Amino acid sequence: MTQRLPQTREVPRRLRAAVRRRVERTKQRARDYRSRTEDGAIAMDGLVFASVIVTFLSFLAGSRWTVIPVVVFLASMGVGWYRYQAEAAKITTLLTTVITVSILTLIVAFLVIESVPAVRLMGLDLLTQIRNPTMDDPALGQGLWGRNDVWSLTPMMLGTAVTTLIATLIAAPIGIAGAVFVSEIAPRRVREVVKPGIELMAGIPSITYGFIGLTIVNQYFYLEFGTPTIGTYFAAGLMIGIMALPTVVTVAEDALNAVPESIKSGALAIGSTRWQTTKSVTIPAGLSGVSAGVLLGIGRAMGETMAATVMLTHTKGFPSPVFDVFSNYGETLTTVIAFEGGNASGVHMSALFAAGVVLFVMVMLLSVASQYVEWRMYQKLGGEQ
Amino acid sequence: MSSVTENRLAAADSTTGDLVSLGVIGVATLTFLASWLLLLQWVDETATVAGLSVLKLLGVGLAVIGGGLVVIGVGSRFDYIDTTPSSSAGAPVGVVFGVLWAILGGLAATLLLENAVVLWLPVAVVFGVVGFLASVLPGEDVGSTLPVAAILILLGVVVAIGGVNAGWTWSPDWSSASFPGSELVPILVVFGTLLGAWSAGKAKEGFGAEGRQAGAYYLIGSVVFAMLGVLGLLIGFIVTNGLQTTLTGASLLGGRQTIPFVGLQVAWPEFPFLLNQTGGLYVEIPGVLPALVGTLWLVVGAVSFAVPLGIGAAVFLTEYAERGRFTQVVEVATNGLWSTPSIVFGLFGLAFLVPRISGGNSIVVGQLVLGFMLLPLVLITSREAILAVPDARRDASAALGVTKWQTIRSVVLPAAMPGTITGVILGVGRIAGETAPLLLVFGGSPYPSTTPNVLGGFRFSAQPPFVTNEALLSPASALPYQLYSTITAGVFPKEIFTNTEFGWGTALVLLLVVVGLYAIGVGSRLYFRRKLHNE
Amino acid sequence: MSEIEPTQRTDLAEQRLTTTGETDETTQAAWTEFQFEDDAKLAVEALDVYYGNEQALQSVSLDVPDESVTALIGPSGCGKSTFLRCLNRMNDRIKSARIEGSVALDGQEIYSDGVNLVELRKRVGMVFQEPNPFPKSIEDNISYGPRKHGDLDTGLLARLFGTDDAEEAQALVERALRRAALWEEVKDRLGDNALGLSGGQQQRLCIARCLAVDPDVILMDEPASALDPIATAKIEDLIEELAEDYSVVVVTHNMQQASRISDQTAVFLTGGELVEYGETEQIFENPQSQRVEDYITGKFG
Ligand SMILES: Nc1ncnc2c1ncn2[C@@H]1O[C@H](COP(=O)(O)OP(=O)(O)OP(=O)(O)O)[C@@H](O)[C@H]1O
Ligand SMILES: [Mg+2]
């Protein structure tokens, strides 16, 4: 406590100092810029920025005059490039950065803004309501989407969770086994064929998987296992799992490959078997990369749209028991957007945006988590603690 | 000191133990493959071999594997077979066997004690503990064979004497589906043979460290073999099913082409599925030309939008901007956006771009949305490629008194080009197969009868916005979208194909386009990498 | 890059011809007859190694006796590490490497089919030129080998039943670290990640890791290259002590070190040739070949 007190007293002073430093630095930068840059180049910079801002504003307003600032931009850029190439190049790259960042921000902001009406109507119930209170006989999981102005995402969240879980259970263990096989077990010849092969597989469009799922897998389960509908969470999850496999294998394999050869040699040179080396040295050293691969695969599975859209029944509700993966229910966050987005409006559309936000947040979390573990691995192998 | 056998450098000659293990592995492989044949419906479950139904044969196979494992385990324990087992199979093996035994016990309880189903939990726990102890307490040779053997023999005998046959079904309360013996048996046998091969693989190398390696390799090898098999099958399905549709009416020299100006007709390759319209009155063999052209325009638009922006931003972030919080945030955000579901981008396009640009589905919005999707990837890969250019080269150029921009232009960018190109090609492969956002912002009629005429569509006027392009502002079709609309539309308008047939054909063309792009991308990466290492 | 220009090399060859009046063949003949009383621990016969099309070792033959120290010296890039890696078949891991000839350990050919590499490497341990500790704790690095070979039981079950060899493990770690002259520096942080050690400490850790496995033959690739004089002296003591029971093969760039610790010395010269091999004293005091004398006295290399 006693040590803390003087510090708290110092805070305002420090804050003021920091602000002053920042202002000072900005001024310095501006002076630098003035003295370094020719007047013409400054004019060009100004013109370029002004025209871009006007372009954006008039586009936002949906104006037909948007073309004018675009022409101004092109002209000033063209003249600038001819006269002051270095400055023009710098301003172009800065501009592309600003545009890229603002597009990305715009997407996020727009998703959030558009989902506001649904959130305002439903509040937290959007994510938690499992019975529709306005119905005479509120059954579990029934009438949650659009009946009496109730829009709850719970059935879709359950669907996404179930299909993602099934897909992960398939893709994670088999994918890791595949990565270990390719990087540690397979003879060189086999590896040189299998690795690019698996990378190619990662490129097969999801609609193709969906088509196979629809015509073959769904039929198989319907005919052989007597599922109540053609299309179940299990069949979709299975297909998504197979689809995510190549991603998991590729990323995890890269991670295992990145473990330095000298460490592997060190283990082999004191007489541990190759499997012991893999299990006790390579996999622990590459673990964060492997888990990054798995997280990425989970993200893919969660965001998978087309295969699920064509395979699932688009009936919303809770199976009973919840883990009955062969029920007649079938809708996920992605499929509901793809299936209904084309002709939705009002709160319905806003609810779809809310679904998009939920998806986005989940996938973003997974992505950040995977980047974090990968960064940890980098640190670890770099020798820093 | 270690014994003589432990000290041997060269592998010993094969012994009876090896022979038995090899036999078990052989039977396991055959049974494994046979159960896949049944699962894939290539062999009917009612088929018989030498008077025995295939299902019963699978049971016999399992029982034989189990018997072989008993021989090995007991033989090794009483030193009839020369092995070097560790003192225990280890906790992980014990846990796996414990769980397997618990499942077995639980299932048996639910099936046999129908009146007292509540008992299943205690029975399962008892079985689990027994399984765990049985695999952990004895030496490795017994602990990793007999517990497996017991399961396999039990299952095998039940199947072989017909206790579970093709007609038998299990319909648990908690599932809407029911599990017929005809499917359940092969599935269980697949797992059973994997276990058996693992155990026999260990035994073949005499247990110990090398035995564990062999067991693990057999297990991983079979799993990966099955995985590659399934992935290969998927592609095989598309090719075999799609080939006939795609080749309908195609011939190498059947067509006629009139040479302009001369008026001469020469033989010419004919490929109606690729070159015909999908709909329309006078089309005999419907094709995917509109979709093909649509995909082409989408890719061109997306690339010309995303590539300059992405590369420019990458140059700024790596060369001009100070490395710090800002660049880090941008990096994390772009990585996140690259894994954002495509449908989310579609949603954005629908709500933001459509009303401002075309007021309905259109090519240009499709291009922009796919461009947005491509943008993060271009940024990531070109940033990586630029970062990979060693600082020494920049310094070398700067030391010669060359300005920063000239250094970037003549040193950094050329060196970063290969990585960027590879990344862009792989990204294009992904967006070319992308469907979800197109449903919302792009797609038009399911069976288009005209190809979009983008080049001829420009119109100039004195009114703002001065330039318009009707074709760019109208909806069109693309290969993945075509596949989707064929699947979901009701009946195919022409008699020559059914919906499914046309779908397989489209899927094949789509696969060729996308996988072709990927192959170019992967190939160019290999090429550049090899070139780099030879330097 | 080769250390001597081709023209220079012919000059030297001529010079040798004039000064000693001997041909290359006769010198070679002189030292290949060099024999030990006992059977060789490692017998290398006509060993050729190629990396792609480049030949890194040219028909090398030499016998390594038991219970002694053999030093390998020679200019950088002459194939010392390559030779060392051939002795426990670590070269098998290099994609482009191709090996011809034979190496026998206790009379058993190690390059024949069906040789158990694991068993071989348990018996022929190796310390690499670059330290390569595992990204694990110091303790785990040392006990890794014995644990994997089943000499130490520290598994989950053993720990549960209280039958694990925790004490033996500790004793073994301490013994190995003491012998490698690292114990005093790390005894308080055995649980820390080994990557946090300094380069020289890492090198001694790798030596300790190799000792913990208790091999018959120990191959060391410049074990003292990153060490201060005190640690170097300790490692030299260790090597001499090891030579009482084991066969030690050491690569070194330090002539004094080679003459101090080794019983016999092999001199490789650029191009992967074994130019001379014999009793250390004899090599340093009375080399047979002019090139070796030039190298030892520092005229080149
Ligand atoms: N992995 C490899 N691939 C290709 N060539 C190699 C490889 N390792 C070594 N070489 C080549 O083989 C020759 C001998 O290399 P080696 O590492 O055995 O030399 P060295 O005597 O240990 O040198 P130093 O004293 O510098 O460690 C060198 O010319 C080297 O370029
Ligand atoms: Mg070396």
TrEMBL record, chain A:
Superkingdom assignment: Archaea
Signal peptide interval: none
SUPFAM superfamilies hit by this protein: MetI-like
Keywords from the named record: Cell membrane, Membrane, Phosphate transport, Transmembrane, Transmembrane helix, Transport
CDD domains on file: TM_PBP2
Main location class: membrane
Cellular component aspect of the GO annotation: plasma membrane
InterPro entries to which the protein is assigned, alphabetical: MetI-like (IPR000515), MetI-like_sf (IPR035906), Phosphate_PstC (IPR011864), Phosphate_Transport_Permease (IPR051124)
Span of domain ABC transmembrane type-1: 157-370
Entries under Pfam families matching the protein: BPD_transp_1 (PF00528)
GO BP term, example: phosphate ion transport
Compartment(s): Cell membrane
Transmembrane regions: 41-61, 67-84, 91-113, 156-182, 202-221, 233-252, 351-373
Single GO MF annotation: phosphate transmembrane transporter activity
Family: Belongs to the binding-protein-dependent transport system permease family. CysTW subfamily.
Function of the protein: Part of the binding-protein-dependent transport system for phosphate; probably responsible for the translocation of the substrate across the membrane.
Protein name (record): Phosphate transport system permease protein
From TrEMBL, chain B:
RNA-binding among keywords: no
Transmembrane segments: 20-43, 49-72, 93-113, 119-137, 144-164, 184-203, 215-239, 296-317, 329-354, 360-380, 411-432, 502-528
Keywords linked to the UniProt accession: Cell membrane, Membrane, Transmembrane, Transmembrane helix, Transport
GO cellular component: plasma membrane
Gene3D superfamilies the UniProt entry points to: MetI-like (1.10.3720.10)
Family in the record: Belongs to the binding-protein-dependent transport system permease family. CysTW subfamily.
NCBIfam families referenced in this protein's UniProt entry, alphabetically: 3a0107s02c
Identification of the protein by name: Phosphate transport system permease protein PstA
Organism of provenance: Halolamina salifodinae
TrEMBL record, chain C:
Region (Disordered): 1-25
Domain ABC transporter: 34-296
Molecular-function GO terms, alphabetical: ATP binding; ATP hydrolysis activity; phosphate transmembrane transporter activity
UniProt name for this protein: Phosphate transport system ATP-binding protein
Keyword Cell membrane included in the entry's annotation: yes
Organism annotation: Halolamina salifodinae
Biased composition (Basic and acidic residues): 1-14
UniProt keyword Transport present: yes
